Amino acid sequence: MRRTISGTLRLLLRASTTGLIFSGLTLSHVANAQTAQDDFDSCKAGLQQRAVEGGVSEPIAQQVFSKIKYQPRVIELDRSQPEFVQTFPGYFSKRVNDWRINKGRELAAKHKELLADLTKKYGIPAHYLLAFWGLETNFGGYKGKMPVLDSLATLACDPRRSTFFSKELITAVKLLEAQSLDQERMVGSWAGAMGHTQFMPSAYAAYAVDGDNDGQINLWDSEADALTSAANFLAQLGWQPGFRWGREVMLPESFDYRLLGYSNRKSVTEWNDMGVTKAKGDALGESDIASYLVMPAGHEGPTFLAYPNFRVIMRWNNSEFYAIAVGRLADRIAGDGKMIASLPDLPAYSRNHIIALQQSLNARGIDVGGADGILGPATREGIRQFQLSQDMVADGFPSLSVMEALGVTITPNS
Description:
The protein is mainly α. It is 51% helix and 5% strand.
């Protein structure tokens, strides 16, 4: 059972008076715990006053803030960094799977009329709304378990991102009052994302819609509200009706891999003229739509031609892996087949592997910035420069051959 800070304080004080040694903790831990609790209580009082000044009624503010508790686990999660670097094959295979595809098709039938209305009103095809829903919460199967207001208050009282989370907390309390939400049922992610579609409070306030016309917007309990809100959100983010997210493509043998990435946008017609085809070899055809090439797993894996709606997906979640997963899950729900290219079998690189790679590149005069273990654009460009110098395929991907050439040893437990 998880104890509160004040509960732990009382327990430790009782232990100290009887001469017990309790898990190696000392009175300094007791003092630190009490100081943290006092600081949180003071911060919470200030946030309560800000909520009232922002328009929340005094009784509601008192009622809500009296129940808010400090959540140390939220700070742990905010500070934690993954030990291993996520690879596209690992990410994709866990998200675009048979269960989500079949469940998405089942829910497409269940919500057929609603989804048709949303497509007509907002221009968002049903299979995309279902894909977002599936990736965010397994179609509502897991919406998170953390008390949203506790999480937001804990982060608001932490100096790292206090301004952002203070605004989110005040917005969440306003939503609770305006929509008559139940504080106990307002659960979500550790960072405060809520409901079927995992909206932060600011997105909830700006884009959520009463889809079932019951006079309340409830993204936890109303699937109609959640789907309508997702459609409105995507439309406001700039979704272009009538266009795909992108598609899997095949590159010509002579392709210059320096043309990968968002900075090298070209029309579909231009890519077609350069020999880029659909995945099965059919011509791309002619179109003025701007697009760019994404190669998430190196030249041995799939390549995608990303259209403007791909960037809209990334405004929901700023990750190319996520955007590809949404696009491909939507395709599969709509009846498309599996990808043509296979996913390469890649090792699980640890952050230390990427740090060693970055250090090796820097040592060779290829500046990738600080060795932080993050495989960002600067590191990918550095890898590409190294590959060019070694007459390798310059796809900017840290393949095993690149790691070996840079002297980075990959072992199962390193």
